[in-house]
Write a structure and sequence with these properties.
Strand content: under 5%
Number of domains: 1
Number of strands: 0
CATH superfamily: Tetratricopeptide repeat domain
CATH topology: Serine Threonine Protein Phosphatase 5, Tetratricopeptide repeat
Distance between the termini: 31 Å
Radius of gyration: 18 Å
Order of helices and strands: HHHHHHHHHHHH
Structural class: mainly alpha
Length: about 250
């Protein structure tokens, strides 16, 4: 209840702050994204991406607009790629290319946009997972954007979280799951610090519950089931709808 009240107050303040069409579209898009993220709702992510796309059209030189469009597209891509429902390879490929295009534009507009670099690394990783034959030429892009993300945002919780998820899926020769856990636990600390800080109208605040759930997934992969269960429960304390945490805890009850 308190969390929803805080989000509501932030969005109300943002609506007051917005003074042109692009800003107003961004605020509405952020509200749609926040609702979709809490419910983990694919149509909601698509709706938010469309809204942010309208804002990009109004302000094509604004990196923030493209960042948020990329965030919404990334989460829709995660759902398409990870869903148990049948999804055509063409649809996934299209979503990958759209997200790469948006985030590439974001970093072209702002080279120091650490989160967009981290998101790009993950999207290229998903592209490799969809077709491992791409690893030879896309692997270096993953590493390039990881490096840029950590250079520009070492204390950014989403950068550490996204780097951890990327490491989790990467080869053991590059650190694998133990290196992933190091980044994820660092992200947990940074998310806790961030939660106590006021946020600007369009300042990101997504990722904490997903990070906690992924720490659980990583502990599980390392054979530490008790720690895994603890983090799945932590994730649900932050967001009771977190799909990974709910699914994993349900498995433990069977």
């Amino acid at each position: 209840m308190i969390r929803r009240l805080v989000i509501g107050l932030c969005l109300t303040a943002a609506l007051t702050w917005a003074d042109d069409d692009s800003d107003r579209l961004m605020v509405v898009g952020l509200k749609e994204f926040t609702t979709a993220y809490q419910a983990w709702d694919a149509p909601g992510f698509a709706k938010a991406a469309d809204r942010f796309g309208q804002a990009c059209a109004e302000a094509p030189e604004a990196g923030t607009q493209f960042y948020w469009k990329g965030v919404a597209e990334f989460h829709r891509l995660l759902q398409l790629f990870g869903s148990s429902a049948p999804t055509s390879r063409t649809e996934v490929a299209k979503a990958i290319q759209e997200t790469i295009h948006t985030l590439t534009t974001a970093v072209q507009l702002n080279e120091r946009d650490a989160e967009s670099h981290a998101l790009l690394a993950n999207v290229y990783g998903i592209s490799i997972a969809a077709n491992p034959l791409r690893a030879a030429w896309l692997g270096p892009r993953v590493l390039k954007h990881q490096k840029s993300a950590l250079r520009y945002g070492p204390a950014n919780p989403r950068v550490q979280y996204l780097t951890g998820t990327s490491q989790y899926h990467g080869p053991e020769s590059l650190g694998g799951k133990k290196e992933a856990l190091r980044h994820l636990l660092k992200a947990e600390e940074l998310f806790a610090d961030e939660a106590g800080q006021p946020a600007g109208p369009l300042e990101p605040r997504w990722g904490r519950s997903s990070c906690l759930a992924f720490i659980g997934k990583t502990y599980d992969a390392l054979g530490q089931r008790a720690d895994a269960g603890k983090y799945f429960r932590k994730a649900l304390e932050v967001n009771p709808q977190n799909p990974l945490a709910r699914e994993e805890l349900a498995k433990r009850k069977r």
